[in-house]
Each structure stands twice: as structure tokens, then as C-alpha cells.
Amino acid sequence: MVRLKDIKEASRLAFAYMKPGVIANHVMTADEYQADIDAGALYAHTWPGGVLFLRKRERYHLLSYCVNDQNIFPDVELPAGTVTEIAYKPNGANAAKEAIQYWKQVWLKQVFERIRLTRPGGLIYKPLHACLTPESKQHRIVLAGNQDIDDCIKLIQANFDPITGHIPTSREIKASIVEGCILCVKDSYSDEICGLLRCIHRAASVEIRQLALNEDVRGQGLASKLLDAFNEKWNEKKSTVWMRDGNMPALKAYQSAGFVTDGWRANVLTN
Predict the structure, then answer these.
(1) What does the alpha-carbon distance between residue 253 and residue 221 come to, in Å, rounded to a whole number?
(2) By three-state DSSP, how is residue 44 classified?
């Protein structure tokens, strides 16, 4: 693996292998390229069959790829804790199966699937506050501040798998706070964070990346309260969220907040 130090070099590699007929999941914005390059976290490997990109995180490695010859396998060993996702629309199921089979022959195994839910922008939204229990009244929703960075990281780490949970780095948490993209549930008496919703926003859409609650406050309607606040803040934009297939409590909460399944699925693979 070679560490990439220039955004032009990264873009050149991606475009060189992004041709008709390739199997690929490499999608990065210019800002994402630059952030990973600045952090010394973006690596690449080329071989006659394609190119790999590896984005190093604190507890895992995120793999993306462009493979233009499925008969030639990469000649590099991936570090432990490497994860990749193969996302597809219903009409892309066959291509996804080909990609999964390819990576199974190399290093990776499929561990579970995610589904995507979408909420159109500009909906007339009825808040869900009626779902709240009396116990939840001692909590309030606020935007996270710089003083909350460590608590946000601890909460996410406690609720998501260290390899497949896409746990953000400290740098990403700080950026999310600056952008006003982390909503927190705080205890009104102790001021402790017991839940959060983190999203990322783009020009025309917003994606929920993490929604988590401490175990001792679940069942009080706080997930709905977080989604209320999210919808109030981002109502004019299309919203999306990826969730683990079969997580019925999460599915019900999102559906109650106006999200619907849109047909997109993703296979999660790791080594």
C-alpha cells in the first residue's frame, strides 16, 4: 500500500480504473479525499486487475475498490479489521453477487446486510412527542458542543461494532460539532449525554450516520425525540439512513418519523 499525498494523484487513480464493466464501490468527494490525505489516512494499491483504496481509521480500515478484471486477484495483504460495503439497487443485485463472490475468494466474508430508508424533503411533519414517557421529561435535546467531544465518542463506541459500525474519528466528531450535525440527549439534572444523533450533510441531502442511546434510557421515546429534532432542523432536505436489516425497533422509529425503505441494500464484508 502506498500512502497518497495529493488529491490529484488519488483522483487520477480512481478515474484510470473506473471504466464500463468494472465492479466498484469507490465513491469519495473532494472534501473526503482532502480530509484523509491531510490526516495521512488514505492509501492505495494497484495491480493488473484494478485499484484498492484503504482509509485508515482509529479502530478499523475502510476498503473501496475498482476491479476491471475479476480473474486477477490483488497481490497485497489487507490489515485485520478491514471492512467494505457493496451497496446496490434492486436492478443491481446480480452485479452485487458477483462482487461478493469475488471478495470471498480473496479475503473477506459477508457478515450482515443493511437496508436504506429515505425521507423526502419538505414533508409536513407531525412531531412524535406523544410517544414520550414521563421518565423522558427529565431529558432535553441540544446541539453538541466542543466540551462534548469525548462523551460523544464514548457513547458511539459503546453502541456500535468497532469494525463494522463506521465509528467516526475524533477529527470527524469535531467537524460534525462545528457543522451543527450532532444532536444530543442530555440529562436535565446531571447534564450528562445519554443519547445522540449524528448526521452528515451534502448540498441536497442529509444522511444519519449514528443514532444511539444508553441502555438505561431506552424505551422512553427518546429516539423519537431525537428524530423530531432532526426533522425540524433538516426538514427541507432529503434524508437517508442505513440500518441493519432486521432491527425492528430502529425500523419502527424511522418509519414513524417519515422514513420509508427505498430498495437500496448493502452487504457488509470484513476479514
Answers:
(1) 9
(2) strand
Instruction: Assess whether 172 and 141 both reside in one domain.
Output: yes
Helix axes 222-234, 248-256, angle to 10 degrees: 40
Same-domain status, 126 and 237: yes
Helix (H), strand (E), coil (C) string for 195-243? EEEEEEECCCEEEEEEEEECHHHCCCCHHHHHHHHHHHHHCCCEEEEEE
Dump pLDDT digits (tens) for 208-255: 999 999 999 998 889 999 999 999 999 889 999 999 999 999 999 999
CA–CA dist 191, 235 (Å, integer): 27
How many CB atoms are closer than 10 A to CB 126? 12
Give the amino acid at 34: Q
Domain boundaries, position 198:
119-264
Q: What is the mean pLDDT of the chain?
A: 91
